[in-house]
Design brief:
Metallo-beta-lactamase, Chain A, seven-stranded mixed β-sheet, single chain, 18 strands, disordered N terminus, alpha+beta, 25% strand, binds zinc ion
Length: 327
Amino acid sequence: MTQTHPHSLSRRAMLLATTMAAASLGWASNSTWAKAPRINTQGPYFYRFAFGGAEATVVSDGPVVLPATTFVGVPHEEVQRMLARSFLPTDNVVFEQNILVLNTGDKLVMFDTGLGSMKLFGPGSGRMLNSLKQAGIDPKDIDAVVLSHAHPDHVWGVMADDGSPNFPNAQIYISQADYEFWTDEAKLSNKDLKALIEGARRHLLPNRSRIIFFKDGQEFLPGVQAMATPGHTVGHAMFMLSSGDKTLAVLGDTTHHPVLLFENPRMEFIYDTDPKQSVQSRVRVLEMLAAKRIPFLGYHFPWPGIGFASKHGDGFRYHPQPMQMLL
Ligand SMILES: [Zn+2]
């Protein structure tokens, strides 16, 4: 049978007839039709996939927007050329905030928490709780909150604005180095750091009794291993997840951009505590991910942030690839 399916034929004919009828009625120009007001809001978003024997859900806190001048270490014209070549705006960079929630069957584990209600980088952020709700996940059911580092867009979702915890039943995991650096009272006098220190103190100090420090290489939750990747912050960590025969690397801010810091991973990011050390960590991790063909989640990568890295000249290339992991 090579005949066209009768349904698709009649459906096409119907669509065509409808289009022609619409054109003859002049729908587009008929002023008696109501004009729908613009709504100007975006929905919460989540993306679910099977991961070995676990179920994974990426929930969004929404995008943040930073000036392209955030990327340094090469002439700014070079940054703009790289962005333009990839069809990206040359003045701003958009960072998603891709929060992973892993249901191991035994534990519900969340990786980073978003920016909370503070609109530090544009109006798009602050959706984490709504995204969780849309995804059918109750914050009270989260057993563990794992923090890659203590920057605002990762820890300011820990507490609600009224000072109550967003995840009242969760243990909180972070490196000791990052905890100590970002809650250090003495740094409040540093005007560049003050707001970040205040924020980290507000979200972490009230939770001290339920914070557990992980160590480099430690499997601190079943199937969740910490890997120290210092530089972006002193105690920045990424996480290697395993379930069955599957592996997923959760990168946190080991790399911020799938073009700039892949094509030139030696470029620097202005918010790195130690940019040179950050470059070393980034190159080491990308080399490993490319050599072992390990899929990863980039916290700030285009939604939903899952893909692979390959070697490309002196740098790397990003291959987004969520479809292989659909349920
Ligand atoms: Zn970040």
